[in-house]
Amino acid sequence: MTETVVVVKLVVLVLREDVKGLLAGLTKEKGSAAISSAYSVYSSHWGSAPEPAMVKKTVADIETDFLFLVPTQIALQLHANNSTGARTYSYLFNMKTRIPGFPRWVEAEHAEDLQYVFGKPFATPLAYFPRHRDLSGYMIAYWTNFAKTGDPSNGSHRVPVPWPAFTKSHHPYLTINHKINKNSISYDLRSEYVAYWTQTYSSLPSVRRAEEEEEEEEEGGMKREERED
């Protein structure tokens, strides 16, 4: 075994522990069972010797899913299930970030879509490329149509592809970047991970509740012993 291989294995080992540490912080109300189950779900595609970049991306995926994706999907479903007359739409913004220094696998950072919705590539053209203005034009068209008609696909502004509504039983989303076309429509965004957090994780008992149940059992046992005495 070469020195380089040993170093790489040590780095991966440290990164794996970082993943578990992150999960411990996010799932502390559920305890060790949640750490174990979440780690199993998110590391299932790693293989026996994952690249450090893959492990780092998993860390980003965990935080993004827990903090942004899952709450958004829950809100989408609630709105689709309970709204009367109002439509619901879902999108994934994945235009490559303009912020320098990020790894190649990083797509968009949080809230980077806002600059395109409000037309910044047109207001400060020297800071952007033509592809950024294409994207901004698409987003302005969708958002303006939606504001006017309640449907981003219908209105006075032409859009590159119809954007289907998110409903109780169908969960389409539009992937938004500068190359929007018919293949930009997909379904069930990261459904495996959404299902984990909303079903598997949610069904795990909280640490506090488990402790309370243990205390109740102990108190019940003590009372039985007192009655026997």
How is the secondary structure organized here?
Elements: H1 3-26, H2 32-42, H3 52-82, E1 91-93, H4 114-117, H5 120-123, H6 130-149, E2 172-176, E3 185-187, H7 191-203, H8 207-228
Parallel strand pairs: 1-2
Antiparallel strand pairs: 2-3
Helix pairs in contact: 1-2, 1-3, 3-7
Could you write a compact summary of the structure shown?
The chain has helices at 3-26, 32-42, 52-82, 114-117, 120-123, 130-149, 191-203, 207-228; strands at 91-93, 172-176, 185-187. With 229 residues, it is mainly α. A hairpin with an 8-residue loop joins strand 2 and strand 3 (185-187).
The number of strands is 3
Range of helix content: 55-70%
Tell me the distance between the termini. Answer: 67 Å
The overall average pLDDT, rounded, is 88
Approximate strand percentage: under 5%
Q: What class do helices, strands and sheet pairing give?
A: mainly alpha
* Shape summary: globular
Low-confidence stretches: 1-12
Largest sheet: 3 strands, mixed
Task: List the main descriptive attributes of the protein structure presented here.
three-stranded mixed β-sheet, 229 residues, single chain, disordered N terminus, 8 helices, mainly alpha, globular, 56% helix
Give a structural overview:
- By secondary structure, this protein is mostly helical.
- 56% of the residues lie in helices and 5% in strands.
- It has eight helices and three strands; from the N terminus they run H-H-H-E-H-H-H-E-E-H-H.
- The chain has helices at 3-26, 32-42, 52-82, 114-117, 120-123, 130-149, 191-203, 207-228, and strands at 91-93, 172-176, 185-187.
- The chain has a three-stranded mixed beta sheet, with no helix packed on it.
- A hairpin with an 8-residue loop joins strand 2 and strand 3.
- Helix 3 (52-82) packs across helix 7 (191-203).
- It is globular.
- The chain starts with a helix and ends with a helix.
